[in-house]
Amino acid sequence: MGDYEKLLDRAYEAVPKQSSKGERFELPRAEVMPQGSKTVVKNFEAIANTLRRPAKDLMKYMQKELAVPTTKEGSRLVLHGKFNARVVNEKLKNFYEIFVRCKECKKPDTNIITEEHGVKMLVCEACGARSPVRG
Predict the structure, then answer these.
(1) Helix residue ranges, H only, 18-84
(2) 5: DSSP letter
(3) What residues have CB less than 8 Å from 15, skipping those under 6 apart?
(4) Residue partners of 80: CB distance under 8 A and separation at least 6
(5) Which of 1, 14, 41, 121 qualifies as a cystine partner to 5, CB 3.0-4.6 A?
(6) Residue 127, exposed/middle/buried by CB under 10 A (0-12, 13-18, 19+)?
(7) CB 53 within 8 A of CB 133
(8) Torsion angle of alpha carbons 126, 132, 134, 135, nearest 10°?
(9) The pTM is what?
(10) Whose CA is closest to 67, among 90, 86, 53, 83?
(11) What is the pLDDT of residues 111-120, one digit of tens each?
(12) CA separation (Å) from 18 to 2, 22, 23, 26, 126?
């Protein structure tokens, strides 16, 4: 074995082993609490901050998707209807897929900008991809 191979082996040994599968972003789970005929999402503000989207946009989406009125009380979201955690988290996942995750590289590092004629575009900071979004 030549000097090059020895140096290469030493370099490979020095490189840290990858501990994760490359996903650094984890979609937050909604902390859902039933209150009579209402459902409270306790960590709503934290979810909106993690997704880097305005809370009012996420609130509007949940209102539309679940077909119920919503109100925001502090950092909590009150859904005026009975929903279990599975349904609420499913809607959050759909919001993430449509309004946050890049269609090309699948990373969450995106922004929504409004272009001329009112077209909203999802712009990825990681790969530069641009794709139109509805709503």
Answers:
(1) 44-51, 55-66
(2) H
(3) none
(4) 37, 38, 68, 69, 70, 71
(5) 1
(6) middle
(7) no
(8) 70
(9) 0.78
(10) 83
(11) 999 988 889 9
(12) 28, 8, 11, 17, 20
User: pLDDT for 18-49, tens place per residue?
Assistant: 444 445 678 889 999 999 999 999 999 999 99
**Amino acid sitting at position 14:** A
Alpha-carbon gap, residue 36 to 53, rounded angstroms: 29
- Kindly state the tokens that stand for 97: 């897929």
Look-up of token digits 């998707």: 65
Q: What is the arrangement of strands in the sheet containing 130-132, beginning at the earlier edge strand?
A: 110-114, 120-124, 130-132
91 φ/ψ angles, rounded to the nearest 5 degrees: -65, -40
Q: How far is CA 54 from the centre of its chain?
A: 12
Contact 26/59 with Cβ under 8 angstroms?
A: no
Q: Class of the 27-100 domain?
A: alpha beta
